[in-house]
Amino acid sequence: MMNRRKPDPIDVHVGTRIRIRRRLIGMSQTGLGNLLSVTFQQVQKYEKGTNRVGSSRLAHIAEVLDVPISFFFEDDPSRKGMIGSQNIAVDPVGHFIGTKDGLDLNRAFFLIKDERIRRSIIKMAETLAKSSQAPEQLG
User: Fold this and answer.
1) pLDDT for 122-132, tens place per residue?
2) Distances (CA, A) of 100 to 63, 105, 106, 107
3) How far apart are CA 131 and CA 25, in angstroms?
4) What are the pLDDT digits (tens) for 51-98?
5) How far apart are CA 104 and CA 4, in angstroms?
6) Of 41, 73, 39, nearest to 58 (Cα)?
């Protein structure tokens, strides 16, 4: 019987942050892999947390993705006592941003330069969110 190691929550978090940033700037796994001199499969393993990212590799990834190394540890669930699937319940916004819809929405919103239009979109989303809540949730 094979003993499979479950990824450490911090490795999963760092991998998720790599994926979020990579997708936010429109880079493919293959593109990132080429810049790091690794295969896209290795990038997948980093993003899933199944392979740990060494410190020198993380520094290189930060350089390629144009973020400080601290970016990968922001909102680290281990600092809040959250582990695994509890992160979704405790931080639904962070989880949503990591999804395809969350990234697509943020990427499109980021491209809107007119602040008035952005504020209008936020107000519309807030109104829609309120109207879709159950009466007992309104307060």
Assistant:
1) 999 899 988 88
2) 24, 8, 10, 10
3) 33
4) 999 999 999 999 999 999 999 988 776 665 444 444 444 457 767 777
5) 34
6) 73
Q: Is 95 exposed, middle or buried (0-12, 13-18, 19+ CB in 10 A)?
A: middle
Whole-prediction pTM: 0.64
Q: Is there a contact between 30 and 68 (Cβ–Cβ < 8 Å)? A: no
Q: At what angle do helices 29-36 and 40-48 cross, to 10 degrees?
A: 100
Q: Give me the amino acid identity at 19.
A: R
Q: How far is CA 113 from CA 50, 92, 94, 116, 131, in A?
A: 38, 26, 23, 9, 28
72-76 long-range contacts (CB < 8 A, ≥24 apart) are 72/13, 72/14, 72/17, 72/18, 73/13, 73/14, 73/17, 74/17, 75/13, 76/10, 76/13
Q: Closest Cα partner for 45 from 78, 11, 96?
A: 11
In the chain, the N- to C-terminal Cα span, in Å, equals 53
Using an 8 Å Cβ cutoff, are 20 and 51 in contact? no
Supply the pLDDT for residue 84: 44
